[in-house]
Amino acid sequence: MADLKTDVRYIKGIGEQRAKALAKLDIRTLRDLISWFPRRYEDRTEVRRIADLIPGETACVCAMPASAPAVSHIRRGLDLVKLRVVDETGTLDVTFFNQSWLKNSLRPGESYVFCGRAEGPPLRRRMANPIVEPEGRRESTGRIVPVYPLTAGVSRLVLSRSVRQGLDACADILPDVLPDEVRREHQLCRIGYAYENIHFPASFEALDLARRRLAFEELFLFTLGLRRLRQRRETVEVEPFGPVDMEAFYRALPFTLTEAQRRCIGEALGDMASGRPMNRLCQGDVGSGKTMVAAACAYFSVKNGRQAALMAPTEILARQHYEGLAPLLEPLGVRCALLTGSGTAKEKRELSAALAAGEIDFIIGTHALITGGVEYRRLGLVVTDEQHRFGVAQRAALAGKGDHPHTLVMSATPIPRTLALILYGDLDVSVIDQLPPGRQPVQTSFVDGSYHPRIYKFLRRLVGEGRQVYIVCPAVSESEEDDRKAVTEYAAQLQREVFPELRVAYVHGKMKPKEKDAVMTAFAGGETDILVSTTVIEVGVDVPNAAVMVVENAERFGLSQLHQLRGRVGRGKWQSYCVLISDNRNEETRRRLKVMTKTADGFKIAEEDLRLRGPGDFFGRRQHGLPGLRVADIGCDAQLLREAQGAADALLARDPELKSCPAAAERIAELFTEAELAFS
């Protein structure tokens, strides 16, 4: 008998070849298959008469071929199958592209359902490339049809049939992880009904019941897992840090910290003195001063006889941190060093030996900090910058270099509180909600492509005044499939046709790390006037001289991502500008982009982004390391989240070890192990 871990190739009707195709979607087990949920649904329940078809609308119609289909070979690679179909109200001309096999499948006098977009005047209705199936089959028409994420070699029909076979195979083995009393109290359907109707809904009412059940279960398990992570952390005891004269640190700063920075430092130092390992997120807008919170924690750790480590996602950002923090901390007796992948083998050996001997107090670096040969004498604090760029395993690898070191993770991506509850439910959260005084707001404009000549003139003037410019594009290279601006071609065009007298360079994520760092270092050093880039510069070097951020095809980016990009400028003493360019005429898209011109508050922007786009791709790529949500939508399911959290907390209060719910405990262990957060 199959179980949910059974390889899909052993499921009746699937086999080796189809299993290989499904593997492209990361579907390898029976659980993977039945959990590959549709992303949307099409209502094909209504079948119209030909006379009732409306031009421009997609609809289903039941009709019979009036004669045998005719095949025309237009050119190499293009065959057309044409036929006229009829019902009691009229005729419809149907055309299929490159489906010549239909010539022998559609027989005159037999009834078929055609589903497609109707066009043409009443007496000459036509439909191109419709979905077609015999009347009564109801596989692709006559019902609510799920639309799945697909890939090459896996059609909707193949996936739908595979899911059907998967559900049939596990009809009697689906474990219900929700306790009966929870299911009854929250009026949730049974698990078998939920899976059946999320994939093959009998009605929209049944679909709503199924979705609510599965979303609740996700949020319930997620909450239980996060609560247990926190419980596990709170049972660990470490030697509490003692008092330190922090005023010496504050006096050494060339500026006064904001009240928000002081508050966040106080929260972190309180954790480190508590006798429990700190596990805190420091969240603040671009330029809010998170690095000073990290510096204060490092100082506190070193003065308590421990070492501190700060891991940044790029070499150039690590170097920037080192060059900013070492001159500040070394006069206070904190011995600092920089460790990156580009150092020589000898340099790395010497640094590693110094770390192991305790001759370095504060090490700043990249992933090189977690390589096998790097050992620490007494690591007390781990800081990760731009934490969403690291998987949980990488953060854990650095923490594993010490004995339960304190952990501070920093993010300049403002996260709405509702989403933070999910992403960081196992973390304490500090928010720096003030910017240092004196920073000029970046003037933001939203225009269409007709403004390019004026924008180029403006850029030339500012470069003439000594400023530098970022231009961000959504693609690396041009494609025939869309009209997105592409970095490589656009940079060449700008250099050749628009700014031949200026220094134009480009950078993108497909370049080798050393190449990217070289380009960014040249830009930071003032050797480049205009840098054309993908969002690889979203987290990057601080260039106070950069005063303009131009974003092409701005509709392709989320608001939070645009806010991050805007944060690359406005770091110097000059007025800075952000220009968002989009020719998209969609009203919702334009309204979304105009939000950027009205506020510089990253948290307001993040809330709007969550409301408009949902949380599914909040960071561009989900790298925070926690299990993903397949059904629940935090933007729409806030009330369901509160219900699930209440139910989870009530269960843990009466059964902290989940002994009464072994299926839930097992599923949580599976989810969090998959996410590299295995429970010990």
Plain-language structure description:
With about 675 residues, the protein is α/β, with parallel strands linked by helices. Among the domains are: about 45-140, Nucleic acid-binding proteins (OB fold (Dihydrolipoamide Acetyltransferase, E2P), Beta Barrel); about 245-275 and about 290-410, Rossmann fold (3-Layer(aba) Sandwich), CATH 3.40.50.300; about 445-600, P-loop containing nucleotide triphosphate hydrolases (Rossmann fold, 3-Layer(aba) Sandwich). The protein has a 7-stranded parallel β-sheet, with helices on both faces. It has a 6-stranded parallel β-sheet with strand order 18-23-22-19-21-20, with helices on both faces. A 5-stranded mixed β-barrel has the order 3-5-6-8-7. The longest helix is centred in the first third of the chain and has 31 residues, at about 205-235.
Core attributes:
680 residues, alpha/beta, Rossmann fold, seven-stranded parallel β-sheet, six-stranded parallel β-sheet, 21 helices, globular
